[in-house]
Amino acid sequence: MSRTLTDTRIVLRSLQARPLSTWVTVGMVGVSVGLLLVLLGMRTASREAFDRGSGNTHLLVSADPSPLVAVLNGIFYANAPANPIPWAKYQQIRGSFPWLWAIPTQQGDSYRGFPTMATSADFLTKFEPVAGEPWKLREGRLFERPFEIVLGAAAAKGSGLRMGQEVFLTHGSGSSREGGDEHAGHVHTEYPFKVVGILEPSGSAHDRALFVDLESSWILHAFDRREREGNHAKVGPADLVDADRMVTGILLRLPTRPGSDASAAMQQQFDTLRRDTSIVVAQPAQQIQRLFEIVSNVDGLFIGMAVVVLVSSAVSTMLALYNSMAARTRQVAVLRVLGASQGRVFGMVVTESLLIGFGGAALGVVMALVGGIAASAWLRASIGLVIDPALDARSTVIVAGGAVALSALAGMLPAWRAYQVPVADSLRPAA
Amino acid sequence: MADPALHVKDLQFTHAGGAFALAVPDLRIDAGEHVLLAGGSGRGKSTLLQLVAGLRDPQGGSIEVGGVRMTALEGAARDRARGRRIGMVFQTFNLLHGFTAAENLLAALMFSDVPAPQHEERALGLLKALGIPDPDADVDRLSVGQQQRVAVARALAARPALVLADEPTASLDPAHAAEAMDLIQRACRDAGAALLCTSHDPAMRGRFARVEDIERFARGAAA
């Protein structure tokens, strides 16, 4: 192929002639694009991650102070719910409507800081932690009788527990005394639980939990109750009284036909249940939306800051090019003498600015991808939160395109300076 | 009859500050002819070359280069005509720094009417003919003499009808000045290009069959 020179090659040579300035400017655009993409990506990803926990639940009933607290406690294990709901209330609610399922849950115990969810088998067979994605077992089986325990993926990894091991749960949701925390609740040493199954990761907060049969939990607390009364004998199912049979939450799902909208029926049941002042009813999706509305101001502030950084990088591009024009006046004049028109010289400078924008945008996308993958891996490993590191195509196109457009705009002033170079005067020998 | 390489007719130019003026009633350079424009510094020699190249606008008159009336053209059309018909050699060469010797010629060919597939052959051929051993050498790594050869080769790359050489020997000692003029004149002769060369050096007069004195055209005090 024969050698020719093109405008783009001249522009590339100009950029190569100023490597430090070029790379610093490209780096600034890259950092701002990467920052903006990571912030946008994390916003979307964290929202998706929050959406995952509520799964296919329509309503959540608890005795927490507010619906938002109910969702944060009951689905995201923020704290153990403080107020119990009697078993009779659960039965009343279950019988009040032909629910597809009504799953009782009880939280309050833990193992090495990982929360325990005492529940019915339905939690692992009918409730889907992510709508459309039922639980999957990685090892073993689901619990079938009291004092069997099934581990969430992150709990299994974090605790180091293996199949067949026996564990003692701690009363309370803090770190156990086994972990050295003296302020944690007492350990239920009388009742060992055997690990019978380990779940695949679901990408929800439930991965951090350990799942046991509800009756086991009632027995533990019945034993505590009787100990306080001075009776140290072990407790069996026959010893349970109504005061022992408590739950802290009820997950409800209305019957739906595929493709039908359950929102009207859900709202009706929501309103009906709300009339009972002894309980709190939450629509998890609505509460998550509310949570995001609360934090949206801070979110907007971060996005605004990232946009400011992006604009600053465009200003830097403009200054770098504008200042370089002083040293390149003679080069521009030579090109003009050789036959380049003012418009062509203008275009070359804008192209130079565009290439900086393209380079920065590409670098930013790579940085955002790498950063997203690293953040996703860290979140998954540390708190079991699954965040998709993939960049949203629309956001990526808008941010990268915006950076390129801003760079092109930033090139206008230096390009105008090049356009106006006085050719004859610029070619005089230096004094 | 072939078009003259340069025909200046009734040219009027007054410097913006009014320091000096040029009036050229008739100046004709035939194809392939070499002309020295002699005279002292600041009398308008460079300005006349810039007017011919279309880098300045005269107040009146016409300038034709290779049959194209430059004064009738504006903007990009005039730039295009300059790139195709005029080559320029400067005292300080004005090479594109950071570019190779070959790229300096290719830059001139970019704006010429030489077909792109011939650019490489044309550039390498000229550099070889003018004794540049490595066309891919960065011009900043070449000796001063080699840089001058690249500058001359670039001026001829687009097969111009006219080469304008503005004080090409002003910064050289007499021996090197003679060598440089030999190079420019020989290269222009080989390429069949006319040459209009300015110089304030009286020693240059003997090298040209035709010498025009700027005082013929200058009006007013020295700039």
Quickly list its features.
heterodimer, A: 431 residues, 2 domains, 11-stranded mixed sheet, 53% helix, B: 223 residues, alpha/beta, Rossmann fold, 5-stranded parallel sheet, 10 strands, 24% strand, globular
Distance between the termini of chain A: 43 Å
In whole angstroms, the N-to-C terminal distance of chain B is: 39 Å
Largest sheet of chain B: 5 strands, antiparallel
Q: Main sheet of chain A, how many strands, which sense, barrel? A: 11 strands, mixed
Number of strands of chain A: 13
Report the average pLDDT across residues of chain B: 91
CATH topology of chain B: Rossmann fold
Oligomer: heterodimer
Estimate the mean pLDDT confidence of chain A.
87
Count, helices of chain A: 14
Question: How do the helices and strands follow one another from N- to C-terminus of chain B?
Answer: EEEHEEHEHHHEHEEE
Determine the strand fraction of chain A and express it as a percent band.
5-15%
Shape of chain B: globular
Largest interface: A-B, 31 and 43 residues
Describe this structure in words.
The complex is a heterodimer of chains A (431) and B (223). With 431 residues, chain A is an alpha+beta fold. Chain A has 2 domains: 7-49 and 291-426, no CATH class; 59-282, no CATH class. Chain A has helices at 7-17, 19-53, 67-74, 87-95, 122-125, 153-159, 214-228, 263-274, 284-327, 329-338, 342-383, 393-410, 412-419, 423-426; strands spanning 59-62, 85-86, 101-111, 114-119, 137-140, 148-151, 166-167, 170-171, 193-199, 210-213, 246-247, 249-253, 280-282. In chain A, strands 1, 3, 4, 5, 6, 7, 8, 9, 10, 12 and 13 form an 11-stranded mixed sheet that branches. Chain A has a two-stranded antiparallel ribbon with strand order 2-11. Chain B has a single domain (31-57, 74-213), classed as P-loop containing nucleotide triphosphate hydrolases (Rossmann fold), CATH 3.40.50. In chain B, the strands form 2 sheets. Chain B has a 5-stranded antiparallel sheet with strand order 5-4-1-2-10, with helices on one face. Chain B has a 5-stranded parallel sheet with strand order 6-7-8-3-9, with helices on both faces.
